[in-house]
Write a structure and sequence with these properties.
- With 436 residues, the chain is of the alpha/beta class.
- It folds into three domains: 105 residues, no CATH class; 96 residues; 177 residues, Rossmann fold, CATH 3.40.50.1980.
- Helix content is 31%, strand content 19%.
- Strands 10, 11, 12, 13, 14, 15 and 16 form a seven-stranded mixed β-sheet that branches. A five-stranded parallel β-sheet has the order 7-6-5-8-9, sandwiched between helices. A two-stranded antiparallel ribbon has the order 1-2.
- α6 links the parallel β8 and β9.
- α12 packs antiparallel against α13.
- The longest helix has 25 residues.
- The chain is globular, with a radius of gyration of 22 Å.
- 48% of the residues are buried.
């Protein structure tokens, strides 16, 4: 990653494909702009955030004015969001629009989101006053930034059984528009939109969510996607939280959450860097038999947790069908870190879940050595990092480090989960948890 940073608040070093990469986490840095190589290096993905930090303020207006005065020829590569109106030109119209954004005027603004390997731009009415949320993790993200009162429609899989959604079940206030996390019914969405004609559908940037997006937009309902998972860097969910928080007028809470994630990642990186000479080797797996390649949202999480993911060539998910499928045997590693969505229900049979997801890997030596671990993918990415780090390095991190971070998350961001007993949930399952 070719990032030229003037101000660095936190540096997270991770093992990337082919060597060591560095991910920079940045906050508001006064008048010093942060030059980037592309949109992937930005966090608040709103056009007008000229200096690429986590806020939009007068520094952005001043930078746009300076770039115009200097007749900058590389503004579009170093400061891509300086083009506030996203018309591929940098002129006084961008200054005017940045000032309107700064004044929090009701207007149409431009935002970016990652779609596969590319970024796309959407026009969005700002601020979003009413949201129809499709997806488990998108729903949790909207609540995290303090926008529960803006949700008027919901589609998640376990709405009535998972306690994390207990504040979304009042159908007199929030209409259920679907029974899955990945899809919604157009007629139901249209009914909500007739009542709230400024309602916007908010969902994950993952292509498996809202596969009928084009039909929904054809019905006159805007769709806005944002990242709720780790993404290929492991940090794209922070981009998503900052961006959707801004769109909902909840930037203060979204910045607080981003800082909370930064602190976890920095703590893990600092401790591993100072104390670990040889990192724990591992692979990341998901669903029932997928081995995560470089483009998987699960791949970088183990690296951020201080591991060394040994997969270096595969760029997509690759199925592993047991020991007879010997391609994986060419890799040397100690741990299998398997991620799957387990939710926050308190009645899961951990042994059954563990056995289900370990089935395709039971003949591998890593499983026989008790180094297959199951991780709940519904957790925010940074909290997953905390759990995995304590598994990799029990001498560096308390056994309940992940639990503590999850408890902080509930106490500070999800009021309906303050009384939740974390010991009753399933967030990481080790071999020794289910077998003596």
């Amino acid at each position: 990653m070719n990032v030229k940073l003037i101000a660095i608040v936190a540096v997270i070093a991770v093992v990337a494909a082919g060597g060591t990469g560095v991910y920079f986490l940045t906050k508001d840095n006064g008048e010093k702009p942060i030059a980037v190589s592309d949109l992937a290096d930005c966090r608040l993905l709103v056009y007008g955030n000229a200096n690429n930090d986590d806020v939009i303020n007068n520094d952005d207006v001043r930078l746009i004015e300076k770039l115009i005065a200097d007749k900058s020829e590389d503004w579009n590569t170093k400061y891509p969001f300086a083009d506030a109106n996203n018309d591929t030109k940098l002129d006084t119209a961008d200054v005017d629009m940045a000032k309107k954004i700064l004044n929090r005027d009701s207007m149409e603004i431009n935002v970016a989101y990652k779609d596969g390997d590319a970024f796309k731009a959407d026009k969005v009415n700002y601020p979003i006053k009413h949201a129809i949320v499709v997806g488990d993790n998108p729903a949790i993200a909207i609540k995290t930034v303090g926008a529960l009162d803006k949700i008027v429609g919901i589609a998640v899989t376990e709405l009535t059984t998972d306690p994390i959604y207990s504040d979304l079940t009042d159908e007199s206030k929030i209409t259920r528009v679907g029974n899955k996390s990945t899809a919604a019914t157009i007629s139901l969405i249209s009914n909500v939109h007739e009542k709230y004609n400024d309602a916007v559908v908010l969902t994950s940037s993952s292509s498996r969510y809202l596969t009928n997006e084009s039909d929904i937009e054809a019905a006159g309902v805007p769709v806005v996607r944002f990242n709720v998972d780790g993404g290929t860097s492991g940090l794209e969910s922070i981009q998503g939280i900052l961006t959707v928080g801004y769109l909902l007028g909840c930037e203060e809470k979204s910045q607080k959450f981003a800082n909370f994630c930064d602190e976890i990642l920095k703590n893990v990186a600092d401790k591993v860097s100072a104390n670990v000479k040889t990192k724990e080797t591992c692979i990341a797996t998901n669903r029932t038999k997928n081995v995560s390649g470089l483009s998987s949202e699960y791949y970088p999480i183990v690296n951020l947790a201080g591991g060394n993911n040994v997969i270096t060539k595969d760029t997509t998910q690759t199925s592993f069908n047991g020991a007879s499928d010997d391609w994986l045997l060419a890799y040397e590693f100690k741990h299998i870190v398997h991620s799957t969505s387990l939710g926050y229900v308190t009645t899961l049979d951990e042994k059954s879940e563990y056995d289900t997801y370990a089935a395709n890997f039971k003949d591998l030596q890593q499983y026989k050595d008790k180094h297959f671990v199951l991780v709940n993918a519904n957790l925010p990415a940074a909290i997953r990092v905390a759990y995995i780090a304590s598994y990799f390095y029990p001498d560096l991190f308390d056994a309940d480090y992940g639990d503590k971070m999850l408890k902080t998350f509930f106490d500070d961001y999800l009021s309906n989960m303050k009384s939740y007993k974390i010991a009753d949930g399933t967030f990481i399952v080790k071999y020794t948890d289910v077998y003596a």
